[in-house]
Amino acid sequence: MTTTIDGPLTAREALDQLEPLWRALHLHHLEVATYRPLLDDAGESWVRRRALYVRLLDDGGALFTARNENGQALGYAFTQTTPGADDTFDAPNGVIELVSLIVLPDARSEGIGTQLLDAVRNFARRESIDMLRVAVMLGNDRARAFYERSGFTAAEAVLYLKT
Ligand SMILES: CC(C)(COP(=O)(O)OP(=O)(O)OC[C@H]1O[C@@H](n2cnc3c(N)ncnc32)[C@H](O)[C@@H]1OP(=O)(O)O)[C@@H](O)C(=O)NCCC(=O)NCCS
Fold first, then answer.
1. Which of 15, 16, 73, 152 could form an SS bridge with 147, CB 3.0 to 4.6 Å?
2. Contact 120 CB / ligand 1 (< 6 Å)
3. Which of these, 104, 96, 65, lies nearest to 79 by C-alpha position?
C-alpha cells in the first residue's frame, strides 16, 4: 500500500484527524513508561494535547501526516521550530523539536515512522535548521532504538519531582 506524506501543515483543521493516533501513543506510554503517575484518561489527554498543538501552531509548530490510499491517517509527526542560535548546543540556526511521532499499531514496522522522520529532516534542512531534538519516555525502549538507529544521540536527562 502506498503511503503519502503531507507537511508541513499549519492549519488547525489538520489536527482533527489526530485523536485516534494520539490516543494510541498515550496508551502505549501507559503500557511501557516506567515513571508514574501518568494521566489515566486518554480522552482528556487528547483534549490537553490538542490545546498544546493549537498554541504551538501559532508559535513555530507544524504537522506532518502519513496517509494511506483511502486518506486514512496512519501516523503523524508534530514539530516545533525554535529559530536562532542555541545558547548551549552548537546549533547556530536553531533547533527543531520532534514534539510527537506516532504510527498506528497495525501500521508499524513498515517504514512509515522513517518516512515521517525523513520528511521532518528534509524540512529542517530546507529551513537551514541544524539540529533535531526528541524526548523519549524511560521504558519506551523500541522508540529509543528507532531514534538511535536513525542517528539520534542521547544528550540530556529530564528529571521530575512531585511537589
Ligand atoms: C516509534 C515509531 C514511531 C516508529 O514508527 P514505525 O513506522 O514502526 O517505524 P519504521 O517501520 O520506520 O521502523 C521500525 C523500527 O523501529 C523499531 N520500533 C520502534 N517502535 C516499534 C514498535 N512499537 N513496534 C515495532 N518496532 C518498533 C524497530 O526496531 C523497527 O524495526 P523493524 O522495522 O525492523 O521491525 C512507532 O513504532 C510508534 O508509533 N511507536 C509507538 C509510539 C511511540 O513510542 N512514539 C515515539 C514517542 S517519543
1. 152
2. no
3. 96
**113 CA to centre of ligand 1 in angstroms:** 6
Q: Are 77 and 98 in contact (CB under 8 A)?
A: yes
* Full-model pTM: 0.95
Q: What is the pLDDT of residues 70-90, one digit of tens each?
A: 999 999 999 999 999 999 999
Give the three-state DSSP class for 102. strand
102 closest CA partner among 78, 118, 120: 78
Residue written as cell 537551514? 128
109 CA closest ligand 1 atom index:
11
Evaluate: CB of 123 within 6 angstroms of ligand 1.
no
Going from the Cα of 68 to the center of ligand 1, the distance in angstroms, rounded, reads 17
